[in-house]
Amino acid sequence: MPAETFSCDSLPSGTLSVEQAQERILQAIAPITATETVALRDALGRILAQDLSAPLNVPAFTNSAMDGYAIRHTDLARQPLKVIGTAFAGKPFLRNINAGECVRIMTGAVVPDGADCIAIQENVQREGDFIQIRGDIALQEYLRFSGDDIKQGELLLAKNRRLNAADLGLLASQGIAQVPVLRRPKIAFCSTGDELKSLGEDLGLGDIYDSNRYTLYALLKKLDVEILDWGVIKDTREAVEALFQQARHDADLVITSGGVSVGEADYIADTLERLGQVNFWKIAVKPGKPLAFGKVGNCHFFGLPGNPVSVMATFLLFVRPAILQLRGEAVTALPEYTAICETPIKKEVGRKDYQRGICWLNEQQEWRVRTTGGQGSHILRSMSQANCFIPIPLELGNLAAGSKVNIIPFENLL
Ligand code: AMP
Ligand code: MG
Fold it and tell me: Which atom of ligand 1 lies at the shortest distance from residue 192's CA?
């Protein structure tokens, strides 16, 4: 590996490293506080708005963990025991068990008063109304005591938790049918560019189909937010200004793609500066430079580059954590693993690359990776073929085949 001495301090002024940009984004975004109450099934994937404590003991009553016989432990010495009834789950046996008596019991049934352990049926010989037990049993064996799993009043689920399938079951087991959750953020997105045609339209010379709106829609779908598709915006100052006015009123966060660099038809950064506040707009990253981040009124604003790969990469690296924070969820870095890269890597010193790779575990359970080939930001196919990013720190240059690199698997984010 080349021993370059490039660091964050060597970046041109105004240009942030990836990590600095991510930090600035999280600092700028306060989680949504508005709450609503939804039915339990609709709470899946939503963020819990307050701590929930348990209204009930679980189990609510002491019950049997096995099918067998509920007995008094001291009676082991005075067998055979007389079977005086049966306790089913949901159909308790309501009398007391006296000396020399026992009750046939099923898993989940209330343990009758007087019994203090369960003889499992595999160890019991029954003849008529009498049983003989083989082997020893510990006091309290196979009893599930009231409050063993959850004690009434105990914290069940903490605020800001993203509710999953197990949580829904847990809440149901407590009889909780309505759940307080945070409001979903409204996330709007649109494409900019005079060359963009929507699906179904004819392509003229120089036109292309708008693919970014489909990738953005799909990426947003994964995050369980309210999605607003604002279509295609023309490359005019007026159109971009109108977009900013709409953002101010109708969304918590707006994502645009294209028109953010310094070409003659690029109005995004300039309009953000005039009608809102720019937090930053240069990151030393490829793909993804330039990217404008700021605010219009109370609406957060991401102006992503137009190239299709840049849109996806910058979404995963910068917009996704922003949305997680906005929706009230804890933001953690995407997991990285070390891998041996089987292909050489071309890379310029001075920016962090997120090259597209295909990774796999070899027979020794070690990660291997190769790049998808051409790394142009316009080659969307590289994103479609890839299953991971290969992040390469800004201080590094070209890498030879066999180099140790990091990988960030992203399949389950797409
Ligand atoms: P721009 O950032 O507007 O200069 O766009 C950079 C490149 O991305 C150009 O080749 C655009 O045609 C292309 N591009 C911009 N927006 C889209 C889009 N929504 N879908 C596909 N390609 C786009
Ligand atoms: Mg453009």
Answer: 16
